[in-house]
Amino acid sequence: xxxxxxxxxxxxxxxxxxxxxxxxxxxxxxxxxxxxxxxxxxxxxxxxxxxxxxxxxxxxxxxxxxxxxxxxxxxxxxxxxxxxxxxxxxxxxxxxxxxxxxxxxxxxxxxxxxxxxxxxxxxxxxxxxxxxxxxxxxxxxxxxx
Length: 145
Known about the structure:
mainly alpha, Four Helix Bundle (Hemerythrin (Met), subunit A), 70% helix
């Protein structure tokens, strides 16, 4: 996959719930902006700081929304799913800290890590959550926030 399509949303990433799918779609756009700044060589410090903050803020918002939903529906894999969220949140915060300390963290390897983590999480953890919601027939509780 080329860098220019690294964070293109694909309908194959849908888990079947409009709210979470919409948040995932938006997360892909945030990551695409971040990737575009790296792959085009736009190393304007302020652009990159903005992109890192947007990535941090939106992942935390999305994770919070998912976790609130999981608690409301008494999701059986909540702890494992939350641990996965915490792992990425820590990685993103570390990227931001390293960048602010002048370390070279904005690389193609970083982009690959983010893409791999996101797809694995969506296509495994979030699919399991969607299946649980469907199996328990609790769609009416699905609105987040």
